[in-house]
Design goal:
By secondary structure, this protein is an alpha/beta fold. The chain has helices at 36-49, 67-81, 108-120, 155-165, 185-212, 243-254, and strands spanning 2-7, 11-18, 21-29, 59-64, 86-87, 97-98, 126-131, 134-140, 145-153, 219-224, 238-239. The protein has 2 domains: 2-87, ATPase, nucleotide binding domain (Nucleotidyltransferase, domain 5); 97-248, Nucleotidyltransferase, domain 5 (2-Layer Sandwich). The strands form 2 sheets. Strands 6-9-8-7-10-11 form a 6-stranded mixed sheet, with helices on both faces. Strand 2 and strand 3 form a beta hairpin. The longest helix is centred in the C-terminal third of the chain and has 28 residues, at 185-212. The mean pLDDT is 92.
């Protein structure tokens, strides 16, 4: 079995693969002060509580956008699993041509998403929209070129900015509003968060296709925590909540 860990700014998203099958998913808050023992005990505990024997883990793969956690997480894998983990980062094989001016700047999670997208749609131009702490857009072409991307503030970040930078606006639950016009302060904020993000997503996808894909309609994949919020807006061909884990698992295979 393979343990895959995507370390994001807000959460660690983990999964266990048994061959092609993703048997388990879990999340853990990203705490940069966590020690290797805290990570190790958590990982073994969450596996046991979900009927996965930690001793059956044969490989571990990590992608991280939080460099401060990598040392502790690697140490936890070695101490508690006796496994030196594979880390997706500069110098590893991806099967992609990275068109960034500095390829090392591309987040490992975005590369993992791109690897999985190429695997799912090998003959299509693909745009991946990942709704995390930031909402990111990545474009991968038919010839396996990672063209680049767009980064905007995520829904939670936008909501917290309103809460922290205004005197009277509260924190709200992020939901799809019943109508664009809110009748309360809370519903007005919810509407603004939702529709600002929706039209930003639609507009950016359209602009990427015009400028980089010669207007050809791409396959658009949604992933990340808030992707399902927009599932009825006819933006995505598919929503793949496990895209980053699938890509990380594929990256491990490519590098074996």
């Amino acid at each position: 079995m393979i343990l895959s860990l995507d370390v994001g700014n807000s959460q660690i998203f983990g999964g266990v693969f048994d061959g092609e099958e993703l048997k388990l998913r879990f999340r853990h808050s990203t705490l940069t002060t966590s020690s290797s023992d805290q990570f190790g005990l958590f990982l073994r505990s969450v596996l046991r509580e979900n009927d996965v024997n930690p001793d059956n883990i044969s490989q571990i793969a990590i992608c991280s956008v939080v460099p401060a956690l990598l040392y502790s997480l690697r140490s936890a894998c070695i101490k508690y699993f006796d496994i030196t983990p594979f880390t997706l980062g500069p110098g590893v094989k991806t099967g992609l041509k990275i068109a960034y001016k500095n390829p090392t700047e591309v987040g490992a999670d975005r590369i993992a998403n791109a690897i999985a997208a190429r695997h799912l749609y090998p003959d299509e131009n693909v745009i991946i929209v990942d709704f995390g702490t930031a909402t990111t857009f990545c474009t991968v072409t038919k010839d396996k070129t990672y063209q680049g991307g767009v980064i905007i503030a995520g829904l939670n970040v936008s909501m917290k900015a309103l809460e922290e930078r205004t005197a009277k606006l509260p924190s709200v639950e992020i939901v799809r509003p019943e109508s664009v016009l809110g009748r309360t302060t809370v519903s007005s904020i919810q509407s603004g968060l939702y529709y600002a993000h929706l039209f930003a997503v639609k507009g950016i996808i359209q602009k990427i296709a015009e400028e980089n894909l010669e207007g050809e309609a791409p396959v658009v994949i949604g992933t990340g925590g808030f992707a399902n919020l927009f599932e009825n807006e006819h933006v995505f061909k598919t929503i793949e909540p496990n895209l980053v884990l699938q890509g990380l698992n594929l990256a491990l295979r490519i590098n074996q």
